[in-house]
Amino acid sequence: MDNPFLVDVTRGNLVESQHRGSVAVIDADGSTVLSLGDVERHVFPRSAVKAIQALPLVESGIAEKYGLTDQEIALACSSHSGEPEHVEVATAILAKAGRDRSCLECGVHWPMGEAATRLLAAQGEQPSALHNNCSGKHAGFICLACGMDEDPKGYVRAEHKVQQAVKASLEDVTGASHTEDEAAIDGCSIPTYAIPLPALAFGFAKFGTGTGLSQGTQAAAKRIRKAVAQHPLMVAGTDRFDTRIMEVLRERAFVKSGAEGVYCATLPELGYGIALKVDDGGPRAASAVMAALVLHFLPMNDQERAAVEALAEPVLKNWNGIEVGRFRVSPDLLG
Fold first, then answer.
1. From CA 155, how far away is CA 161, in angstroms rounded?
2. pLDDT band at 330 (very low <50, low <70, confident <90, very high)
3. Which of these, 23, 134, 208, 216, could form a disulfide with 276 (CB 3.0-4.6 Å)?
4. Can you name the residues that pair with 21 across neighbouring β-strands?
5. Residue 92, domain CATH
6. 0.90 exceeded by the pTM?
7. Number of domain units in the chain
């Protein structure tokens, strides 16, 4: 079955490209609000579930033990741009556990943010693991290991107690079994498990409302949502989609990008969880679909609506700043 077209990209008056995908919106009781396309196909959520992966750090009391701030907890949920602020906070997280960047097992890449890369290069420096977009999550994993009196070495391996705790949290929240048949290795070297979109959406509905979660998990989820709402720059970076939408909506929406066109969100006041996958992996198309869904479901004032509308149907400009096209979300998406 071909998935429906979710986004058209126009140039002039013509459609230049189209993006197919699937969407699941589930409420906290497990009822389907919206289902489009082949939602039962298992997808790797990748970075979209970082907030759920951070639950053991907070729920265990280890975040409190090490005195992690809301800013630091927000970075533990991030796919950051490698800006100086991100590197500084990741370093601080590690220091609180008595560790440094040499313990990070996420690998090294240049910052995701162009400005951060240019700054680093202009200073004649090379990137370190701290610039990896997952360094905040990994710093949190190292804190979790140390707080459990475990050697953090090898914390990325599936058999390590850190990843066992993370896996248990994902299974608890999403209700999906994370078996070896569905397992693979993420870009930052930790295990990742493929699950259907409805399970992801249901998990985020629970993450946003606490419904069906233990008291400890509810409290941890609430702390994480608050931390992210207060420090949205930590979750992504300057002018990044996740940061921009949460700067506007704060605790009214938690959104998180994954890789290969996956996006997840929760709208706590509605009790909705959202999960989507753009077939071709296009991140811009996935962002536009997520913005359109938030815009469709969440009541907003004029200022909020204008800001989210700009994300739902962004204008495309060429290098001279001339408007050449737009992203246009399919009316079928919003039924």
1. 8
2. confident
3. 23
4. 278
5. 3.40.710
6. yes
7. 1
